[in-house]
């Protein structure tokens, strides 16, 4: 709040720039900067583009998930193209105090979005083309780490295992459950939850699905409803941003 709208001299990944962190305007807070000599202003929407942010010394490192053409007209325009992880290092001309203030404001904004912090991830290594475990290591884990999500991972070892896990999982330890699978494991998970004596409370647990099966009908329709394409990284990013199957968002 204290830094809302103020323009500050920075270096962004080494290039001198003027940057603004606006948190006071209505709509989604955003980070905008204009590099010396550049024509276009660049912007990141905290809600739609940013995974996490940390201040360290006089730097603020912002981890984002954006399309290559990150220069977009503000505010919060949807990026075209495939998103990938990018890191922006803002070195504050005003030093450590300014970096700490920005870091605090960014974290405060990100925290206010109600994103999940602790996820239980269930992976079916035998679903679809049997690539779920590789997909997890290569694409899912790095994104969740960049977003600072604490993950407990469990691979299903046999048919019916997901149902068993869901029927006895200590749900208080998690903000959500994610299936890296097709529809079969997802159905088992829901059935396991419905089998619990506390099912009426337990069924409120947010559930997400990352497509790693054959048909992936559920992942496709959920991502379509959220105007996202059906890719692993889009599904993970939707989960990081707090979209889940049961909330219907
Ligand atoms: N370790 C395992 N060994 C054998 N079968 C398993 C194992 N883990 C889960 N399963 C079973 O695999 C079945 C299919 O899984 P899943 O839905 O993930 O993939 P899929 O059938 O390829 O995808 P879709 O359902 O989207 O077409 C599930 O019903 C589940 O019971």
Q: Would you write up a description of this structure?
A:
The chain has 249 residues and is α/β, with parallel strands linked by helices. It has 2 domains: 106 residues, PH-domain like; 123 residues, Probable inorganic polyphosphate/atp-NAD kinase, domain 1 (Rossmann fold), CATH 3.40.50.10330. The radius of gyration is 20 Å and the shape is elongated. It binds adenosine-5'-triphosphate (ATP). Adenosine-5'-triphosphate (ATP) binds next to helix 5.
Q: Layout of helices and strands, plus pairs?
A:
Blueprint: E1 7-12, E2 15-22, E3 30-35, E4 42-45, H1 46-49, E5 50-56, E6 59-67, E7 83-92, H2 96-112, E8 118-123, H3 132-146, E9 150-155, H4 161-168, E10 176-181, H5 183-194, H6 199-202, E11 207-211, H7 217-225, H8 232-240
Helix pairs in contact: 3-8, 4-5
Bound molecules: adenosine-5'-triphosphate.
Domain DAGKc: 114-249
Pfam family, one: DAGK_cat
Protein name: sphingosine kinase
């Amino acid at each position: 709040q204290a830094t809302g709208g103020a323009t500050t001299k920075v270096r962004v990944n080494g290039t001198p720039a003027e940057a603004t962190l606006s948190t006071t305007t209505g709509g989604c807070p955003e980070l905008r900067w204009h590099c010396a000599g550049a024509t276009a202003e660049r912007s990141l929407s905290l809600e739609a583009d940013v995974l996490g942010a940390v201040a360290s010394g006089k730097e603020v490192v912002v981890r984002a998930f954006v399309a290559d053409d990150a220069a977009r007209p503000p505010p919060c325009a949807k990026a075209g193209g495939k998103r990938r992880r990018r890191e922006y290092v803002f070195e504050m001309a005003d030093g450590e105090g300014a970096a700490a203030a920005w870091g605090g404001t960014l974290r405060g904004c990100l925290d206010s979005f109600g994103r999940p912090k602790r996820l239980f991830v269930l992976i079916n290594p035998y679903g679809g083309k049997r690539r779920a475990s590789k997909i997890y290591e290569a694409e899912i884990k790095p994104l969740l780490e960049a977003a600072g999500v604490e993950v407990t991972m469990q691979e299903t070892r046999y048919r019916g295992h997901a149902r068993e896990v869901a029927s006895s999982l200590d749900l208080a330890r998690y903000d959500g459950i994610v299936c890296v699978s097709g529809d079969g494991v997802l159905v088992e998970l829901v059935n396991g939850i419905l089998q619990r004596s506390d099912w009426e409370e337990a069924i409120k647990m947010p559930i997400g699905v990352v497509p790693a099966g054959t048909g992936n009908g559920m992942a496709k329709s959920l991502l379509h409803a959220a105007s996202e394409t059906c890719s692993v990284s889009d599904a993970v990013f939707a989960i990081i941003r707090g979209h889940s199957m049961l909330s219907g968002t």
